[in-house]
Amino acid sequence: MNTPIRCTVVGATGYTGLELVRFLVQHPSCQISHLLSSSKAGVLYSDIYPQFQGLLDLELEAFVPNQLPTDTDVLFLAMPHGEVHPLAQTIREGHPDLLVIDLSADFRLSDPMDYPKYYGTEHTFPELLKNATYGLPELYKEEIKTANWVANPGCYATAVILGIHPLAKANQLSASVIIDAKSGVSGSGKGLKVGSLYCEATEAITAYGTGDHRHFAEMKQELGFSDFLFSPHLIPQSRGILASIYVTPNTAISETDLVNLYEDIYKDDPFVKISRDLKTPSTKSVTGTNNCVITPRVMNNGNIVVFSAIDNLIKGAAGQAIQNMNIRLGLDESEGLPTLGWHL
Q1: Please, is 263 exposed, middle or buried when counting C-beta atoms within 10 Å of its C-beta (0-12, 13-18, 19+)?
Q2: Taking residues 280-297, what's their average pLDDT?
Q3: Tell me, which fold does domain 155-311 have in CATH?
Q4: What are the residue ranges spanned by the domains of the chain?
Q5: pTM (predicted TM-score)
Q6: Active-site residue numbers?
Q7: Which CATH fold topology does 5-153+315-328 show?
């Protein structure tokens, strides 16, 4: 029997951390060595989440960056944005060969000047930016295979980049690109926020961050194209993202050629599914999975509409982190990850 991969999760009690733990407990090649939490140290994980009783009765430990557990092969950082980069130098100097899967935004952007612009803070470890790999497997699988610091993409960015990437590669992006994306409330995390309260979020759909949302920086960076409008919305459901993307192409393209373009680009990517169902694109097709379902169609006027759906907590966060670990450690890319989701 092969030696299991020893995993430590920092931020294990948040929504993303919870999903990471759920996948790792069931992953055939992994074992969880430590669960770290700044606020819940000393508490049994199964007391917080009773579904783990008898499966994972680990006591949460304090996160001390210069005293990380030595019995760790992979460190998952499910921490809020802005909290990782001040600690990164300590982590990297103490453990230069440790595989770090970073689910914060702190190393997603390659230009240090983007952090004050989009995140309101100076980056304290910019020299690591050039060594961090943007962890979108469908674009950077080969780079991930040798990376020691993987920056997991944002949830909106994952849905939008996967949805637009084939058009960008085919030079079909014009000055008219509009992205209307909607996300469930879990995308804002577990922390208390007025906009996430039941009475604020239920029976409402709310636009926010139009034109300047943080994930726009990732889209611009990865697509090499910035002349588009991105408008995210909060909707009253717990999870899921549906990005509706409207493009006036540079040159006319038939629907057959468009679908063939998408299918060819993603033919080796097990979690990207190309759908022809224009009538009912829905987050129900991806909830509970690591899939991204993309529907590319040509309208009667020649314009293109692309729908891209993901589960924001899985393909948009924890599942993609597991996918990156699998690739980096030479496992099957799909190992331990769900492809059949929940309809209800």
Answers
A1: middle
A2: 95
A3: Dihydrodipicolinate Reductase; domain 2 (3.30.360)
A4: 5-153+315-328, 155-311
A5: 0.95
A6: 155
A7: Rossmann fold (3.40.50)
